[in-house]
Inverse folding.
């Protein structure tokens, strides 16, 4: 598989590409399937519909990898926090974590309740082109913890950070239990057919450097090390969003570093290019305009070259109102421009 070869820095016929959040509302096909499912969570839990939306972007865009359709928040949900997706408002947990007792009351063995994710992976792997990779994923302990503590997305992360500085032992207990569940969850995804795994640390940038290393990166590394020691042939991709200033501190046992759009690719290459394959990092909003998109692609190729060591992606997820024609064009353009 071209994508897997690229993750291990082996030469490929062109630079492989996939797009974070490549399944979603910018595709009318997704909206139709989601309507059939009735709700977002029903869609995640319905194996045949979730498989369908996983495969849609592969067929429509011709990307080199599929990412299983699910959400990072199904894991905390299965740890015993009821989850709702409110129309227009995003995810919402009715019960939140604020004390050590709350952490102790979380159910262990959540990874055993996620058969709908494993079954979707198996079904997709059975239908996916042999040359295309299937990516499994999870949220980072820190990013998941912010939703469990705040109850929803946040601008300030006030409750999470207040816990970090006032009662770090409570936050650490939560991060540790998440870490143990996530190791087994990713392992389950690999056994079900995932060819690579990515950990999304979407809210990395909420933390100052020392806090980031101690309360997020430490746990990401622990999960990555666990997977790499048991499954050396499975690439592990880490995507911490918004930590351009901390790249000197990045280390650990993983294969691919996901570069967000706020981190200049030149800087990522200088600091990490010798150690890790880099994935990224086109600013998603460039897809609003074809000329801006092409210019962005050219700039990234000029930095990363056409040799091994790069996987093309956006620097964060697809937005619901981006024109699909430009996403299709992006994939085609990238393959032509990077042909060896
Ligand atoms: O249909 C809808 O209205 C729901 C929109 C939606 C979609 C399409 C949500 C709700 N989740 C998803 C799918 C999803 N989420 C995928 C699918 C696979 C793919 O990439 O095609 C993935 C990988 C995720 C991961 C995810 N969920 C992250 C990490 C990645 C990122 O974008 O930073 C995060 C932070 C979430 C939480 C979440 N789920 C949904 C929303 C709207 C949010 C973000 C809310 C917020 O900003 O706090």
């Amino acid at each position: 598989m071209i994508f897997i070869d690229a993750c291990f820095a082996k030469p490929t016929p062109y630079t492989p590409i996939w797009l974070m959040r490549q399944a979603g509302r910018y595709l009318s096909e997704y909206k139709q399937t989601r309507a059939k499912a009735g709700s977002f969570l029903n869609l995640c839990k319905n194996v045949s519909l979730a498989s369908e939306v996983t495969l849609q972007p592969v067929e429509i865009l011709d990307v080199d990898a599929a990412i299983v359709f699910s959400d990072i928040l199904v894991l905390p949900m299965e740890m015993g926090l009821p989850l709702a997706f409110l129309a227009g408002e995003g995810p919402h947990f009715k019960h939140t974590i604020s004390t050590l007792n709350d952490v102790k009351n979380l159910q262990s063995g959540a990874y055993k309740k996620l058969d709908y994710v494993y079954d979707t992976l198996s079904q997709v792997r059975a239908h996916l082109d042999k040359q295309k990779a299937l990516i499994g994923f999870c949220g980072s302990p820190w990013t998941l913890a912010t939703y469990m503590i705040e109850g929803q997305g946040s601008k300030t992360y006030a409750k999470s950070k207040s816990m970090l500085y006032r009662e770090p032992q409570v936050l650490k207990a939560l991060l540790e239990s998440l870490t143990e569940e996530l190791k087994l969850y990713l392992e389950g995804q690999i056994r079900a057919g995932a060819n690579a795994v990515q950990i999304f640390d979407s809210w990395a940038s909420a933390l100052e450097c020392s806090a980031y290393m101690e309360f997020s990166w430490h746990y990401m590394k622990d999960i990555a090390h666990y997977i790499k020691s048991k499954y050396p042939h499975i690439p592990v991709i880490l995507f911490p969003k918004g930590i351009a200033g901390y790249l000197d501190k990045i280390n650990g046992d993983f294969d691919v570093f996901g570069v967000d759009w706020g981190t200049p690719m030149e800087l990522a290459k200088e600091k990490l290019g010798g150690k890790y394959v880099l994935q990224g990092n086109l600013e998603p909003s460039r897809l609003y305009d074809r000329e801006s998109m092409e210019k962005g692609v050219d700039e990234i190729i000029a930095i990363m070259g056409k040799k091994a060591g790069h996987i093309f992606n956006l620097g964060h997820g697809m937005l619901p109102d981006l024109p699909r024609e430009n996403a299709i064009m992006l994939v085609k353009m990238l393959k032509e421009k990077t042909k060896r």
Observations:
- Residues 45 and 116 are 5 Å apart (CA to CA).
